Each structure stands twice: as C-alpha cells, then as structure tokens.
C-alpha cells in the first residue's frame, strides 16, 4: 500500500495574502519520494545569507525550520535517509531549497528546465544545486496522460509518476501525475496559483502570474490545458497547485 503525505514547506505573507508550498511525500515500503522540496533547513536558519534580502522582501517568505521537508518527514516518524528521489516541477527557489537536505537523493527535472537554470536566468539561485545532486533529466514525451503529452519518471518505487509539460511559468515547468492505489493525484505546480483561477479567467492573481511567467503565452496555454483536464476528469482526479492554502486544507480532510 502506497501512502501519500501532504506537507506545507513554505510560508508566504504578502500584500496579496497568504500562500503555502504544497509538497508531497510518497511512502512505499521503506522508500520515500519527495515532490518538490520547499525552503531548506539552512535557508530557514540563515535566510538572508542563503536567499538574499531582496528576494525575501519581494516574496514575503516567513521562515520556520519546522516547515522544512526534512523536519516534517522526521515528525511523521520517517527517516530522511530513505528519501531516494525528489521530483521537481521546476527550479524556482521556493521549490528546491530543501534539495540540499537530502544530498543522496536523485533529483528528477525536465531537461528544458535545467537548461534554463544553467543559462544564468536571474530567477534561479545557482547555489541551490551547488551540492551537485545526481540529476535525471527528461526531454522526451514518451507517454500520454488523459490526452496530454507525458514523460514517465524512472523511480526506484513501483508507483507510477509522470511529468506533464506545462511550460510558461518557467521554460521547463511541469505538472506531476501520480497513480497510487488505482487513483490519480495531479500536482499542477505553479500552472496556477489559486484554484479560483480555474473558474475565473480574470482573477486578480493573474497579474502576478503574468509578471512571473517566462513565456506568458505558453503559461496561458498550459493553464487552459489544466482547466480542460479538471473539467473533464476532475471527479476522478485529486488535483492541487503549489501555493493555494485552501487546497492544502482540503488535502488534510
């Protein structure tokens, strides 16, 4: 039996409201797979040194080491040493700070995203990969998921996991689809910030999403793909994005 735990690994307080960092831990036998990694332990202890004052003020990050993935995994009674793989939707700072807390884990990411990261794009923090993790890059759409192109993630567990390319927010941003116990969980990453965007195409948060997008035309196309999937298959899929606190609360029910 596979168990999926929902974690909040980021706390944001900004003029636009509160936001979270909705990560997952897949537990299968004695192995753990982390979906995105949130803010790291050292970043929580030394935020300005690790992230920079400008980024902290721009985002509204609030730091609490109890929110880090490593501390929450320990609180669940699990061993962080058993995190064999970390699957990253993309490489923005609030998604990968915790990677260094699991130095032996293999990190999975789209090749397009890694190439963007290595290009010197200022949205990324190069030191977050300075520990030189074992990287597995994915370029080929070798599968299909509910009609969308997909890339099967090669893991050391039996649970099926796929990257779903949803480019635009970043040049290699992907959603992640997980099949466990014959049910699908769809993590849309930052394809949307708030679930309300799925119904309201003129939601005010779209302005922020537009500003943060590397390619806004692609972002809007990806968001429309998510809307169509949820409209057609939402009853059969558990779905959520990274930042909506309402969705995190729903996952705890």
UniProtKB/TrEMBL annotation:
Transmembrane segments: none
Pfam family, one: Lactamase_B
Keywords for the protein's UniProt record, in alphabetical order: Hydrolase, Metal-binding, Zinc
GO molecular function, one term: metal ion binding
Domain Metallo-beta-lactamase positions: 20-233
Record keyword Zinc present: yes
Family: Belongs to the metallo-beta-lactamase superfamily.
UniProt name for this protein: Glyoxylase, beta-lactamase superfamily II
